[in-house]
Write a structure and sequence with these properties.
Helix content: 25-40%
CATH architecture of the largest domain: 2-Layer Sandwich
Number of domains: 2
Strand order of the largest sheet: 3-4-2-5-6-1-12
């Protein structure tokens, strides 16, 4: 290869792949006949990208080669993250190292070929990191952050990695993942993108559209044209933007676009997998099934104008940490929430209502909650999150030491289900509960394998990392379980009574909060 060709390969990734006969990790030639939908992605170097993708679509090779090529030819330091350190080990050893071993040119580029956590590519570095340790995101400057499997990653650490781009002249960020829930993970970035869909043109009638499950038809099943029912040639297509002028370059890649995947295979997967798994990993879209997220409408349907008379035992749920977030309610629902810097407002409520019970987070602040428990014995309980391995109880009360142990994920699920089913009265308007609602809407549920290989669900924090009021709600719900005196009853949606009976919460009993409307 002469100097002119070598230079051309540094300017075009396509010329690089062709000139050096780059293969995949199985040492097979890159096959763009079976993966034509990946051609444009190989050449897309937009600073911001979001890819909703199914499993088994050949994306790992594309992401790996683009990272290596950018590090060498554009002098970029890159952070490449996956959910866990074990994911990184598997990815680098089975994908990255094999790609390098199969190419003489890539071997010349890399000095520390066998390192799992980083690759020195020319004069620049690709750092491979997990997201489930806080230290992983620290002290690593970069020009490009690649978040692979974004939705299975720890979201606050993903945000930390993003901050490592602040001093770069590039500041690029790419997000790829099988999606999970609407508005979470990669879907949040996809919503801001141009949302490209892979359009396939029918050779018989000329109708052109993207593939859905409606394209599977006939016996035996095949991918057919919605208009004329003739079989489609899925080897050829083109990316079509849904929106023009958007900064983020977005792609949706369902498994149906892969010509090697038959219609029968898709139908078999639909029977084999749960609806959520099929939606996320085969269709490549977020799953909006019941219980996965709390939507705005689900929350708002619980709001009522009826006054909570505050005549039954109040329960105070308190989350500690960065500030003190708390909510107050009783068997008739929630009627107040606020944030404070110290515990005086909580003490004022406990003094105002001699029967009030407080359930408080024991971990965010070690000293304050324990002092509060000493001052109000039998009325303040410290909450620990742990799964009961013996009898699978959601909540276990320990009166001897003033603690309560609860199953974190199941309690969050209970609260979400109650709001979804319109069984959690909340006195007030959307404007009054907006901040509270906003944190709830950011949470989402994923399914993961535990150490025994059993699938379990887990509730994840919003991308902002803030979910203080949802946890105060959980602590309130734990208190209601024992001290609520009766089942929570729902309000009459036609009631026109005032929403609040203003309550005074400061130690001097001088400040009235949330005065009733029209008063």
């Amino acid at each position: 290869m002469d100097e002119k060709e070598e230079f051309a390969a540094t300017q075009s990734i396509y010329l690089f792949l062709e000139s050096y006969h780059i293969t995949n990790d199985q040492n097979e030639p890159l096959d763009f006949r079976e993966h034509e939908y990946l051609w444009d992605l190989y050449g897309d170097f937009s600073p911001r990208q979001a890819v909703l993708k199914a499993a088994q679509i050949g994306f790992s090779t594309c992401a790996n080669l683009k990272a290596l090529w950018l590090a060498k030819n554009k002098a970029m330091d890159i952070i490449y993250s996956l959910p866990s350190s074990s994911d990184i080990k598997d990815f680098v050893s089975s994908k990255t190292n094999r790609l390098i071993a199969n190419s003489t040119e890539l071997q010349k580029w890399t000095k520390d070929k066998d390192s799992i956590e980083q690759k020195m590519v020319g004069k620049n570095v690709i750092y491979y990191r997990g997201t489930w340790t806080e230290r992983a995101a620290l002290s690593i400057p970069a020009d490009l952050y690649i978040s692979d499997e974004t939705d299975r990653s720890k979201q606050d650490v993903v945000q930390q990695y993003k901050t490592r781009l602040q001093h770069s002249k590039y500041g690029w960020e790419w997000y790829f993942s099988n999606p999970s829930a609407p508005g979470q993970g990669v879907d949040k970035h996809w919503a801001e993108s141009d949302q490209k869909h892979w359009f396939i043109k029918c050779q018989s009638c000329g109708h052109e559209w993207y593939l859905t499950m409606d394209n599977i038809m006939g016996t035996p099943p095949y991918f057919g044209c919605i208009k004329c029912k003739k079989e489609l040639d899925r080897h050829h297509g083109r990316w079509v933007k849904k929106y023009s002028g958007r900064e983020v370059s977005g792609y949706w890649i369902p498994l149906m676009v892969a010509p090697r995947i038959s219609a029968q295979y898709i139908l078999d997967k639909k029977k084999e997998l749960t609806e959520e798994q099929f939606t996320n990993f085969v269709i490549g879209t977020p799953y909006t099934g019941k219980g996965n997220v709390l939507t705005r409408q689900m929350f708002l349907q619980n709001l009522t104008e009826r006054v909570n008379q505050q005549e039954s035992r109040p329960i105070i749920g308190v989350d500690t940490g960065v500030g003190i977030n708390y909510c107050v309610g009783n068997k008739d629902g929630l009627f107040f929430y606020d944030k404070c810097d110290g515990y005086d407002p909580i003490k004022a409520l406990l003094k105002r209502w001699p029967t009030a019970v407080c359930v408080i987070d024991q971990g965010g602040d070690i000293i304050g909650p324990r002092k509060l428990r000493e001052e109000f014995p039998g009325r303040v309980f410290l909450c620990f999150f742990a799964k009961d391995r013996k009898n699978d109880e959601l909540i276990r009360w320990k009166d001897d030491d003033g603690t309560v142990v609860a199953d974190r994920n199941k309690l969050i699920q209970l609260c979400v289900d109650e709001m979804t089913e319109k069984r959690c009265p909340i006195s007030g308007t959307e404007a009054e509960w907006y901040d509270y609602m906003k944190e709830w809407l950011g949470m989402y549920r994923t399914v993961e394998d535990n150490t025994l290989g059993i699938q379990v669900f887990k509730w994840n924090k919003p991308a902002t990392g803030r979910c203080d009021w949802p946890f105060s709600h959980v602590y309130f719900r734990i208190g209601i379980d024992r001290f609520g005196e009766s089942q929570v009853s729902f309000h009459d949606p036609n009631s026109k009574q005032f929403a609040f009976k203003g309550i005074e919460v400061n130690p001097n009993n001088t400040t009235q909060l949330w005065t009733p409307k029209n008063s």
